[in-house]
Design goal:
Number of domains: 1
Shape: globular
CATH architecture: 3-Layer(bab) Sandwich
Strand content: 5-15%
Number of helices: 8
Strand order of the largest sheet: 2-1-3
Oligomer: single chain
Bound molecules: fe (ii) ion
Largest sheet: 3 strands, antiparallel
CATH superfamily: Iron/manganese superoxide dismutase, C-terminal domain
Order of helices and strands: HHHHHEEEHHH
Length: 201
């Protein structure tokens, strides 16, 4: 069985930008739901749980053809929520180190990057995510995915995630998704983003 990650902060640490009730439901209901379903499907396929979850993406053909779509959907639900929860925190809100170097190299400066990320997020149609990723040459690339698709499915390495499903923001922001998107930049923990980058270097 795969285990849920613990939140790297207290349930109310993202206040006032994301309320504790939203964080609690998001973690205990939505994320847990994807994890339970993923474990159920993998057990059903007699999987031995020896690989990392990321490796399952490349090895999806080992599972019953009829289960592959649902495994990828729930695997995405797990990977995406884990990256989203890890992207945020209560400190290190200004980029430093490797992420700052990459942002300056690929976007000129942090403000340009932020403007571009916000523009692309606002452009997402339906339910999905905005990711900061690295391409095969480790160049930064911002991309939206639909539903629970993870950038690994398209050959991109995700290092930062913004959940744009309504359950991420609706209790506090109602239909004002763009306010949630703007406020996300007050709670990014760039030390955690640097940790994700290191996985791929
Ligand atoms: Fe979510």
């Amino acid at each position: 069985m795969y285990e849920m990650i613990s939140l790297p902060y207290e349930i109310d640490d993202l206040e006032p930008y994301i309320d504790s009730k939203t964080v609690s439901i998001h973690y205990n209901k939505h994320y847990k739901g994807y994890m339970d379903k993923l474990n159920y499907l993998l057990n059903k396929n007699n999987y031995n749980f020896n690989d990392s979850k990321e490796l399952l993406v490349d090895n999806i053909s080992m599972f019953d053809m009829n289960d592959r779509g649902e495994i990828l959907y729930n695997l995405g639900g797990v990977l995406n929520h884990e990256l989203y929860f890890k992207t945020m925190g209560n400190s290190n809100h200004q980029p430093k180190g490797e992420i700052l170097r990459l942002i300056n190299r690929d976007y000129g400066n942090y403000n340009n990057f932020k403007r571009e990320f916000i523009k692309i997020s606002n452009n997402l149609k339906g339910s999905g995510y905005t990711f900061l990723t690295m391409d095969k040459d480790n160049k930064l690339f911002i991309m939206n995915t639909s539903n629970q698709d993870n950038p690994l499915y398209y050959g991109y390495k995700p290092i930062m995630a913004l959940d744009l499903w309504e359950h991420s923001y609706y209790l506090k922001y109602y239909n004002n998704r763009s306010d949630y998107i703007n406020n996300f930049f007050n709670i990014i923990d760039f030390n955690n983003v640097n940790r994700e980058i290191k996985k791929y270097l």
